[in-house]
Amino acid sequence: MLKVGITGGIGSGKTWVCRIFQHLGVPLFEADLEVKKLYSSDKDLKTELIRNFGQESYDENGAFNTSFFRSILKDETKRSILNNIVHPRVFERFESWSLEQTAPYVIKEAAILFESGADRTVHKTIGVFAPIETRINRVIERDNRSRTAVLDIIKMQMSDEELRKRVDYTITNDNENSVIKQVRDLHQVLINEARHF
Question: How many Cβ atoms from other residues are within 10 Å of residue 172's Cβ?
Answer without folding.
Answer: 17
